[in-house]
Protein 1
Amino acid sequence: MASDNLITEGLTGLEEVAPDILSLRTLFVNVVFIGEPGSRNWVLVDTGMARFTDHIVQVAAERFQGPPSAIILTHGHFDHVGTVIELEQFWGVPVYAHPLEIPYLTGLKDYPPADPSVGGGLMARLSFAYPNEAINLDDRIFSLPNDHTVPGASGWEWVHTPGHTPGHVSLFREEDRLLIAGDAIITVKQESLWSVLLQDKQLHGPPSYFTTDWQAAHQSVQQIRHLEPKLAITGHGHALSGDMLSESLKQLDLEFEESTVPDHGKYVD
């Protein structure tokens, strides 16, 4: 893992969005650490891009006293599970995902290939090269509990937010109405390389080149809006909060068909 440091230098960013919530950007996707600094009880949400294992381990070692209680995956796309096999082996901790996502995490089923025809910018046009193959965690991946609790994270619940993938989940803490959205909503136009480089803070639906069920994706946005989050950490982009978040969620919901669903593409009805 030592060679990772040379590759990841300058490609990460830390954002402390709450006293017990730290977001780490790995190239263009975020991983989230849930837990008080100095705690022995914490969880990692998503594992980012490949080759960032060392950096994630370093951030964790500096912030916490020991390995996480669990790794939670919002979904299994390549940019969210890039280091999960190495981290699971290094820490020896359980990994959890929605049961509908587990076939993609145990080598049984590949995701549908990305659709570069959706348009929107260079990131979308390059998506033909993005991996869609399943990874294989074998017997080290477990289904999230049926009672919607989040293993290792007291006070949190998981919410099924499909559309981007069948088993996509978001995490919600009612106490302070904090949402970890995954890719159900994001705060950067992920199809555009320029937007990704600038990290413009503007609410969007899920990355269109990998989203296969737009009706479910819209329903997930409506579900998130109904939760009335006060702060949202998304899979791509900076955290969004307050009136800007609530007004943006309202606009995204009401204008979803016009602003978010591509005009054309293999997964567009």
Note: The chain has a mean pLDDT of 94.
Protein 2
Amino acid sequence: MPEENRETSPTSSEPFVVMAKPVGPACNLECSYCYYLDAATLFPSRERFRMSDEILENYIRQYMTTSPGPEVLFVWHGGEPTLAGLDFYRRVLELQQKYLPDGKSFRNNLQTNGILLNEEWCSFLADNHFDVGLSIDGTQWVHDTCRKDRLGYGTWELTAESIRRLKSHGIQPDLLCTVTSVSAREPLSVYRALRDFDTGWIQFIPIVQRTPDGEMTPESVSGEAYGRFMSNIFNEWIHHDLNRLNVQLFAEMSLVWMGGSPSVCWMSPTCGRVLIIEHDGGIYSCDHFVNKEHYVGNLITSPLNELVDSDVQYQFGENKQKLLPQQCRSCSWLEVCNGGCPKDRFAISEYGETGLNYLCDGLRRFYSYAEKPLKYVIRQRKAGKRPEVIMAELRDESREKWKGIGRNDPCPCGSGLKAKNCCWDLRP
């Protein structure tokens, strides 16, 4: 809406989430690709990162009254939020019950590396109906390459045991898997390792990071590699796992192609409705923009509704669409991409504009590969066809399409490239 017509009110007019960092950037791991450890430089005088009871109570009270929906979502993030301890989350539940408005409910989501999730933790999370997102990078070798503890040891075994322990308590954690320059070389082994945990939901997160001098970090995945990675996983999923699990990107694409709107900020036309509260009460525009330039204010000195609906936050969200390059605006895949996350938009477009997504080439390759079969699945599911039947039809079609195709023949996808340079690795 026009800036001059916007007014703040005690309850925000649009849905939003304020993710909480109860221990700031503090963590018990030293993952080589972690983007959040640098946030510690914002608090040079802090010896201990810990959200005080005063800030916690202010946050919960204001968030409950400001959130416009019938359900208030609390996301506990990090750093590693379990470092706050169980008593912290017992206090969270007390305050949530204390300030819960009539007619509303609340839900808690814990994003964790799983290292501290012993029996007591898992019982608590299950008894209090916490959703859990857990970070694991697929196979042990891939995971342990980047996700190490402070002594330099890999953490896959501890993480895998935490997944099994959560499941034994009735919790099916969402699995969060980064895509790095290492894991991108092994898409199927990574995917199958995650699938074998049988939790029902996987989210792949591409690592795109730059050094202070503008070079890509060694862990960063290239656009081409990311496109190949997701295409390989899509190929496996759509032929074998439609009825077994969901992959976030595929689910979001399906949502859009069924006529809905994406539920994730990076795929939406605008963003700015998922903010961060740090342990000291500071509010920032986004988890990927916790820096001085994107500091919105502090919960102790300014009402939450004014910060969430402030002009600076509104412009942050609108810039996602406003600064979209012409190459994106005319792209066939705009509705399922919308330029992606602003943190990744630093490449130069074919028209010489800044703000193109670094992963653009790979994303376009993936969307092109996935569109036809995914839309077929949507149509067939709408018609009532069972997933097992759809998968069998797609496997038969794929075998027929590749019959007699050699490495140097034109790729059957219609790209005009030789098969060896296009979809050769995706053949049945």
Note: The longest strand covers residues 105-112.
Protein 3
Amino acid sequence: MIRRNICFIILLLSLISAVPVYAQPDKKTNAYYITNYGAIGDGITDNALAIQKTINACNKAGGGKVIIPAGHTYMAGPFNLLSNIEFVIEVNAKLLANPKESVYNKSAFRDNKGEGTIWMGGENLQNVTIAGGGVIDGNGISFMGAELEDSYELKPFKIVDPRPHLLTIVGGKNIRIRDLTIRNSAYWTVHLVGCDDVAIDNLTLLNSLKVRNSDGIDLDHSKNVRISNCYIESGDDCICLKNRREYEEFGPCENITVNNCTMTSRSCAIKIGSENMDRISNVLINNCVITKSNRGIGIQNRDEGTVTDVIFSNIVIDSHLFSDVWWGKAEPIYVTSYRRANGNNKDAGWRFPKGKTEGSAGMVSNIYFSNIKCKSENGIYVGGESADKISGIFFDQVDVLINKTTAIPGGVYDRRPSKVDGLLTGSTSAFYLDKANHITIRNSSVTWGSNRPAYFKHVLESREVADLKIFNLEGQSAFPDQMEAIKKL
């Protein structure tokens, strides 16, 4: 009898030990560790299933923390976040994207399959935090073609571009992203679509400056967003506000603040557009540094949507010329509204309104620049396809220093993508205004560096500008004995 009881106890203990450890989270911290759900931190095992099991269990229990534990690299293919979780990548932990293109199949833009896929993210999420002090690595170079001098070649594809966007959240509410290093994205890094009440704080976001389309943070039809204390390096735009046509049901992009950020970009550090089929408004960008960038601040409106009530203040801009691969020609400030070039049938419904292969350009109005210090190889450019597209642009305490610092040819303003000629060649003036209304410049200055090519010209050059007001604009032309400071046509 005793032997039989002992055998029964041994059998019972063996059955208990066979129950998965992950059935019980850490009760004190309500933490769900991915290692308890089968994750292996060897950097080569795909842990997407284990991570998804952990997220599902945490969500089913009502919420808690999903932990990527310290000390290891956890490689994973695509997985979905769910509501009411804090997704924690601990200090000295790395979450690494699977480099196999075949595991990525969900389009980042619904029926438009030609602009990347999704690695991690979710739809209709509420109360999600992504934090922890660790590293999220998109493994971006794995998805590139040959390395060129100024960029990586893009691999050809037939229907689906497999390059994964690193994080995509659609229809999120109460989203927090903080205290992380996010790096090496193959496409857009943080793409927030139709999200409301978002705080992004203390991110170090490091993408290769050679990877095209590697935007840092894209706010798409999102509202009530605060971005602060971030350091961003991106081959493409660092921070971009837009309204993509694929997600038009989410309405305007509005009520956005950006504070205390440092940015470097081969395209545009802070951009509004080019996709904008709705309204972008109520935007405040303050206390930022833009360094070693192609274009500094850009409003690049190329669709029927409008841009209004935007303030840029207390910003230092350092911009330089780079190759034609990148949009921009070192314009420190750039405000434009041109319709994009006509497309083809595959563009109808996403690049253009449904059933159409051409579009229109909306109005840009009430844009304020205050206390901006610019060092650049080019001047400020303001232009519209007609004067009524640009109205109410105010420059106050905007100081511009122009000097030739690279061997790349200048004397060009970049209007791509647009139906008008993409590259406008000719002269470089500190303020170049082309077809606009109600422009005010006050308490500003222009200086020229010692390296002045012949195409450096005027303090201000304007064409078809109505109601141009200038109060205390200091400076001379690049060659005072040859040309006037202000030229109006």
Note: Residues 1-23 have pLDDT under 50 and may be disordered.
Protein 4
Amino acid sequence: MTKMVIKGTGRYLPERVVTNDDLTKIMDTTDEWIQQRTGIEERRWVPEEGNVGASDLGLEASKIALSRAGWEPKDLDLIIFGTLSPDLFFPGSGCLLQSKLGLKSTPALDIRQQCTGFLYGMEIADAYIKSGYASRILLVGAEVHSTGIEMATRGRDVTVIFGDGAGAVCLEGVETDENVGVLATSLHAQGDHAEALMVEIPASRISPTRVTHEHLDEGRQWPKMDGRNIFKLAVKRLPEVSQTVLDKAGLTIDDIDMVIPHQANLRINQFFQKSMNIPDEKIFNNIQKYGNTTAGTIPIALDEVIEQKLIPEEKSTLLFAGLGAGVTWGAMIFRFM
């Protein structure tokens, strides 16, 4: 039976470190205020001079993942790129990454699932591999938020949260009867909460220019978030969907070697941990130093977990879970070979 296994991981974070104290210079906030509400101490942003897009960060993470897998770009059958901050309005960043990897006709697709982009990408990759369409897939989650958030007190609640970064995984189909790979997945969406976290413009529904000077003056080009609603949804849905995949896989939380939740807010993850009775040594958080990199959070964390040898090298079982804009949410249990 064909199973999807992880052959290599990689991450890339920009060198520019932006601390909470740095943010106090451009908006009315404090380090204490940010840490109390989010758990974030600092985040990485691309250079102020710009000209760095999501595909550039994704390229650096991909090079590392490919090297660890022992692959060349030409070995890839498909590229899946998860991002809400593409380099261009169109085409997608997956095509740009494909070109930067020196490839000529390898298929590439973008997925716009925001904070659950990695989870959706893993499920899509698993389906492609099990169908026989692809054998080797590069999955990337990458974001450049810093060029799209409001650097003023009006945007404080959102701006303090987001960071830039990328994570990549090399996925391969192998023939085995072992119970490895994706053991269970549960993905969901609830579009009637779309306005809880959104960027309104530019938008095709706005005629004839997709954006007006009035819209810009009103700040509708910046992310808007109903933080309380997102928090309530997350602390309800994350335990639910995690229990669903545990039940599907016939496992309990005690069978999981490491839980890697999406890094949206440390308070959400602490509530999730308590609800699921997860021991401290079995849950990984890095939002304190990177902020929320949306589609990048889980693959970045996974790479750190492996690098720090926090899980057994073989047969380790991981639980991924996340909720984000859409709203979308999901969970997956993955076992290494």
Note: The longest strand covers residues 2-12.
